[in-house]
Amino acid sequence: MHTIPLWLRAPRTGADACHRMRVPGGYESWWFDAEDQSGQTRVIANFSMGAPFARTYLKPYRRYRLRPTANLPPLPREHSQIEFEVIDGKRRFFSSTTTPLDVLDGADDGTGAGAFRFRQLPDETIQLEMDDGTGNSANLIFRTHVISPPRVIDLKTSDGFLHRWILSRPMCEVTGEVRTAANGPNPARVHTFSGRGYHDHRVGTGPLGLSAKRWLWGRVFIEDDRAIVFQLIRPRDGRVDDVQLLHVAGHEVEPVSAEAPQVSFGDRVRTWFVQPISFGEFLRLDRPRMLHYGAAYWMAFDAHITGRKDPAQALCIIAP
Fold it and tell me: Do residues 246 and 254 lie in contact, with contact meaning Cβ atoms separated by under 8 Å?
């Protein structure tokens, strides 16, 4: 009897290859962000199939689990979304589409929908092409300090599902072109982009939002080839937080300390604006700025790191 796999556990074409997730309630996503050398221009792109924190995904999944013969299961590709944001100084441009993703691994048409795509080129770089059709676009090349094999972390949850974090390219050199549309008195701009970036890949066999009360991810660039990346899952059942605090240096990705730090992190959105988020004595996040909000919040913070005099800039996602 032939069986059809609901997902590929080990794709053969690299860290960014699609797992072809067809599990009801599953998800897969590819995140990119880049900032130029001045820190004034930032590009964020998120490609996702399945929405592990969105009510529009969680509710039909709960109905399906309660009465699987009476309710159709929510499938990841039917809940696709591509989000694109350009921040140019004080100007912000955001766009999104829910068109189902086309997934074509390798140096071909790439992964995405319409004018929003990324592809791996023969030289192992990644090309990100985003165009919202209103004058805001980015054509960027992500060149990486290759991590071979990439750091793969299976997160600890009590829901019985796999939640995998693949740090495929956590430290990249990014070059290309960014265009921003005219906005009020501000003219349209076309400028050459040169800076640094981050890219990761996530896959899960069930919605993380059912078992996680809070989820926090972030990264801080501290030098041209060094960064701090972190992630926290706060379970709904009161168990101990699953905390990842990693140091990226060139080809190496290692925990900052042998033991996971205690994290001070408020359970209500308003507390993030009045109480710093801290990872033990090593990292403190304050002065939050909202970049975008939906099923999750994209936020910027000042990051204070032990041993460094001046604060760096942290980019975070928080799912409440």
Answer: yes
Structure tokens at 313: 């800039």
Which residues lie across from 178 on neighbouring strands? Answer: 138, 191
Cα dihedral 282, 300, 39, 112 sign: positive
Of the CA atoms within 13 Å of residue 309, those in its CB half-sphere come to 0
Residue 145: partners with Cβ closer than 8 Å, 6 or more residues away: 171, 172, 225, 250, 251
Distance CA 134, CA 220 (A): 31
Phi/psi of residue 18, nearest 5 degrees: -75, 140
Nearest partner of 134 among 93, 186, 91, judged by Cα:
93
**Residue tagged 């801080």 (tokens):** 220
In tens digits, the chain (320 residues) has pLDDT values of 567 778 887 776 677 888 889 999 999 999 999 999 888 899 999 999 999 999 999 999 999 999 999 999 999 999 999 999 999 888 889 999 998 888 755 445 578 888 899 998 888 889 999 999 999 999 999 998 665 678 899 998 889 899 999 998 899 999 999 999 988 788 898 989 999 999 999 999 999 999 998 999 999 999 878 999 999 999 988 888 999 999 998 778 899 987 878 888 776 766 767 688 999 999 999 999 989 888 899 999 999 999 898 999 999 999 97
User: What is the C-alpha to C-alpha distance for residues 216 and 127, in angstroms, rounded to an integer?
Assistant: 27
Neighbours of 196 (CB within 10 A): 19
CA 78 to chain centre: 20
219, 229, 228, 193: which is closest to 300 by C-alpha? 219
Strands 252-255 and 242-249: antiparallel
Longest distance between any two alpha carbons in the chain, whole Å = 66
